[in-house]
Amino acid sequence: MKRILVPCDFSTTATHAYRFACEVAAKSKAEIFLLHVIEVPHLPNFSLVPTKGYEDAILGERKAKVQANLAKMRSWAGKTKVSLITDFGSVSTSIYRYIDKKRIDLVVMGTHGATGVRELTIGSNTEKIVRQASVPVISVHAPTKVASIKHIIFPTRLDLTEKKLINAVKELQQLFKATLQLVYINTPAEFARDVDTEQDILLFIQQHQLKNCNVHVYNDYNEESGIQNFAARYKGKLIAIGTHGRKGISHFLSGSLAEDLVNHVNCPIWTLAVK
User: Matching CATH topology for 3-140 and 146-273?
Assistant: First the structure.
């Protein structure tokens, strides 16, 4: 994990995410790319209005302010190398582009979450990135010290084929030097006897060679509430979960457990889109 992208709109949660990313970078000796995207306003092209000159003046003034803010934030990073990027256009499109362009290993984003109709139809930029990013994403709601994270909550359906996800979680565990709390959420819709599930979990641990790992079976009405209620037992936690990156009508109908957690849980959420 050597190249970290931090999208920044200078909000409180973006600042929390940046400070968290600085600590991760210091721990892993990584470089940070701090990205601010200016969404260009659309102006009607009236013949009597010097549209291009007006846009250049407005954007030039805003870019100067952005560069000053980014430079100030760079000073918070200590010895960590921080590259400042200002881009124009769609936030999510810019993030995807710089993930590829800069060969990013991890995205760290602040999020306000989303609720109600907004959650069902629009969602947050963080939610979109969680769904489709080709690299892991850590979503940050509140101020969090990297050193405080002692537990990684890892909900699993015990899919032995998701090697990419499991290997990435193992790397995450090694980075934070945390205990892996492996939990199977047992729900009425997909009920399984504890004795059978525990045997499956032990096989899962053995096959993937997981270490410093505790095993749990937790009963609840659904997976999201089960994960939230189980995670509430622990202080100093980060939740790690895969998402299947649904789009369009499939996403609207089925939703995403990972995105729901990003919207509703205050601790850091690490996600990886499993294509």
Answer: yes
Summarised one tens digit per residue, pLDDT across range 219-264 is 999 999 999 999 999 999 999 998 875 544 333 333 478 888 888 8
Query: Which residue in this structure is represented by tokens 């960590």?
Result: 80
| Helices and strands, counts by H and E, the chain | 10, 10
Look up the CATH architecture of domain 3-140.
3-Layer(aba) Sandwich (3.40)
- The pTM (predicted TM-score) of the whole model is 0.86
Q: For the domain bounded by 146-273, which CATH number is listed?
A: 3.40.50.620
CB 109 within 8 A of CB 17: yes
**CA end-to-end span of the chain, whole Å?**
21
Pairing of strands 137-140, 179-186: unpaired
Domains of the chain by residue range: 3-140, 146-273
Give the orientation angle of helix 163-176 with respect to helix 12-28, to 10 degrees: 80
Whether the CB-CB separation of 28 and 155 falls below 8 Å is answered with no
Question: Residue 59 has which token pair?
Answer: 């954007």
DSSP tag of 222: S
Task: In whole angstroms, give the CA distance from residue 222 to residue 163.
Answer: 25
SS3 154: strand
